[in-house]
Amino acid sequence: MPIRKALLFAISSMMSFVSLRADTIISVTGPHGSALALGATNQILVTSWSSTQTYSNVSIAFESIFGPFTGTAYLMTQIGPGTTTAQQVASDSYSVLSSSLSLTNLFTGLTLGPGTYFLVVTSEPTGTGGWDTPYSAGPPVVTTGAGVTRGAQYIVNDGNGVPNLAYPPASTFSALNLVYDLKFQVIGGGLPSTPTTTATPTPTSTSTATPTATSTSVPPTATQTLGPGVPPPTVPTLSFPMLALMALALAGAALFLIKRP
After folding, report:
1. Which positions ≥6 away from 115 have C-beta within 8 Å?
2. In sequence order, which residues have a C-beta less than 8 Å from that of residue 107 and are 6 or more positions away?
3. 3-class DSSP string for 180-220
4. CB 5 within 8 A of CB 36
5. Using an 8 Å Cβ cutoff, are 189 and 19 in contact?
6. Least confident of 13-27, 42-56, 193-207, 227-241
7. Is 247 helix (H, G, I), strand (E, B) or coil?
8. Cα–Cα distance between 7 and 198 in angstroms, integer?
9. Which helix (H) or strand (E) segment is 248 a member of?
10. What is the distance between the alpha carbons of residues 234 and 26, in angstroms, rounded to a whole number?
């Protein structure tokens, strides 16, 4: 009976470690290049992805720069004219304190089922903040989890499309040229995945996929840059071999304690 309890303890401990593991659902990283302005000229930026499976305990963050600034983020299943809160998965305010490149958390604790998701990020019109991209510094590094596909990017500002300041996800967006790879990270815990990482060559043509019938995008009216060489933040994870070794160690410790007189 004591041995059985020790084994159950080891298995339970291993499962606890697995549940804390953070798998990459999708991330776009790369060297620091040019940042696209948020808020200036009522500029709103959007990135998207699709998934064929359910992920739990999901956290979403974007790579910000030129703080301090504040804004609001929306996670949607649809964007463009006619969009309402019925297509809204989550929304929350955020605050960027650092002027340097940093990973700013937008959402935590989400459960996302199969479907297409749009991450809409806004900032106050007088803000000076930016969403970083590797443009002009090198290609992006795109990592996707099992069943996940990177989607298109979108932009709207006073000179490109029609911003809806009452409800930003309902703006008339244009496709954002993929030379501007918006850097962001979506991670989730407790589900098996096999991430794939690719360094994507910089495209030379604009995307034509849009949420509504609008023209393709032009470069945003406000961009900001900072010197290259700032590495993007990383999130530590535990591999399955590491988890197995930890579980075995816990089991050995439990058996040792049981056998002691």
Report:
1. 50, 51, 77
2. 58, 59, 60, 73, 75, 90, 92
3. CCCCEEEEEECCCCCCEEEECCCCCCCCCCCCCCCCECCCC
4. no
5. yes
6. 227-241
7. helix
8. 40
9. helix 240-259
10. 13
- CB distance 66 to 32 below 8 Å: no
The C-alpha atoms of residue 221 and residue 206 are separated, in whole angstroms, by: 17
C-alpha span between 165 and 103 (Å, rounded)? 25
Query: In the chain, where are the structural domains located?
Result: 1-21+238-261, 23-237
DSSP string across 43-62: -EEEEEEEESS-EEEEEEEE
Cis amide bond preceding 232, omega within 30: no
Contact 42, 82 (CB under 8 A): no
Handedness of CA 229, 235, 239, 245 (dihedral sign): positive
Kindly report the pTM of this predicted structure.
0.70
pLDDT interval class at 98 (50, 70, 90): very high
Residue whose entry in the numeric block shows the structure tokens 């500029």: 43
Indicate the DSSP class of residue 232: P
User: What does 131-194 look like in DSSP terms, one character per residue?
Assistant: EE--TTT---EEEE-TTEEE---EEEBTTBSB--SSSGGGSB-EEPPTTS---EEEEEESS---
